[in-house]
Every structure is written in structure tokens, then in C-alpha cells.
Amino acid sequence: MEIKQIKAKDTQDIRHRVLRPEQPESNAIYLHDDLEDTFHLGAFENDVLLGIASFYPEKSAVITNPTQYRIRGVATERRMRLKGLGTALLADGEAEIWKRDADLIWCNARIVAVGFYEKHGYRKVGKSFVIPGIGEHYLMTKLNPNKKVDQDS
């Protein structure tokens, strides 16, 4: 498996098929996909894209740490689940974000993904909430292990 940077448009097919199959394809295009400091990673095996993740310099409305990155659209082809692709994408994304000196990373994790993020050091903040058309989520955060910062909640 190889993790490499990809373009936003390269994430859209997997985002649509895996994360939003009941929605229009246009819903797989996310706000901030093309910001200068946004980056997207793909997990490849034999040059076939099998998993994706996107990372945005975006602040949460409820967390006040100065420098934040958001994870969105982490998805792998269904046949590749539980084979380490998500872990590899997350690890490479975190390494890049910590190089950029962010204080923390956050995401809105679907209920089915909470255990995955907890296993990688993220913690739930507050109560669960529903994103219409997608389902129940938790705000989850992870502090930069290389910095001494407080996490607001």
C-alpha cells in the first residue's frame, strides 16, 4: 500500500459511493476542498485508489484553540475495510498537520467511526448530534502531542 497526495476531484467518487450514496454526486464536493492549505490523501494498491481522506485548515465553532485542522471524508472501498488503509491515511495526515504546527485536529465522526478515532487518540467532545441526511455524529479532537496546549470544550 502507498499513501500519496491526490487532488480534491480524485476523492469524489469514493466519497459519493461510500459516504453519501443516497445523495446527489454534487454532495461529494466539500466546502474548502480547494483551499491553499487543504490537502487530500489517497491509499493506493497497485496504482488503484482504494481509500481517501481530506484535511482542512478549518476551525470548529466550539473549540477555541488557535490553529486547527479538520478531517473530512475518510473512506475506503468496502472490500478494503479493516485492512489498515484508514489508519495509514490518518497517520500520514496527522504527521503532515503536526509539521504545519497545528494545535489540534478535529472531526465530526459518524457513530460507526467513533471507536476508530478513539483507538487513534481522539476524544469525544460534548454530546452526539445529527447531521441531516447523514446521521448521528460526535465532535472528536486530538491534541498535537508535540505542543503543550489546552483543549477547550
Any overview of this molecule?
The chain is of the alpha+beta class. The chain has a single domain, classed as Gcn5-related N-acetyltransferase (GNAT) (Aminopeptidase, 3-Layer(aba) Sandwich), CATH 3.40.630.30. 19% of the residues lie in helices and 36% in strands. The protein contains 3 helices and 7 strands. It has helices at residues 12-19, 85-99, 114-119; strands at residues 2-6, 39-45, 48-56, 68-76, 104-110, 123-131, 135-143. Strands 1-2-3-4-5-7-6 form a 7-stranded mixed β-sheet, with helices on both faces. Strand 4, helix 2 (85-99) and strand 5 form a beta-alpha-beta unit. The N and C termini lie far apart (36 Å). It comes from Listeria swaminathanii. Keywords: Acyltransferase, Transferase. GO terms for molecular function: acyltransferase activity. Its EC number is 2.3.1.-. It is an enzyme of class 2 (transferase).
Tell me the total number of β-strands.
Answer: 7
Strand order of the largest sheet: 1-2-3-4-5-7-6
Low-pLDDT regions: none
**Annotated CATH homologous superfamily:** Gcn5-related N-acetyltransferase (GNAT)
InterPro entries: Acyl_CoA_acyltransferase, GNAT_dom
Pfam families: Acetyltransf_10
GO molecular function, one term: acyltransferase activity
Enzyme class: transferase
